[in-house]
Amino acid sequence: MFTMEDAGWKKVTSRRRKTNAGSGNDEVMKIATTFYVSNFPRYWSSRDLWKAVDKFGILVDAFVPRRRGANGAAFGFVRFINVASQNRLLEKLEKLVFDGIKMKANVSRFPRRKYGAQNEDRGKQKENVEGRRKIADGRNSANDRMGG
Predict the structure, then answer these.
(1) I want to staple 76 with a disulfide (CB 3.0 to 4.6 A). Which of 24, 64, 107, 134 is the partner?
(2) What CA–CA distance (Å, rounded) separates 114 from 116?
(3) CA Rg, the chain, in Å?
(4) CATH class of residue range 26-107
């Protein structure tokens, strides 16, 4: 049997530091409160949002996605830990005014998906009650084959 050592090859282990993606993040999520914020300048990055709200508590995350909301406005998420009163922090966030525009804030309705998690429904075909594949116009594939 031919092995790598016979050919003069040597097995090398990876030099990259192996990290456990999300290590510690689960613990932070247990004590963190995430807020959805909107109505701030469109040109802001996550760093700008961080600088604006950092003074209100222990900020651990700020995120401004590239895509915009339905009305074209910028939105983002900020995560604080050890929040004593959500209502008091919401009031502080909503008192912020930038370029004459008052920021809007709400407690986030949905938890953040884990890094790399895929939407389970993505790429799946819709199925009806009998389990047959549906065609775009709503006909069943079995009916389509029978001409009906």
Answers:
(1) 64
(2) 6
(3) 25
(4) alpha beta
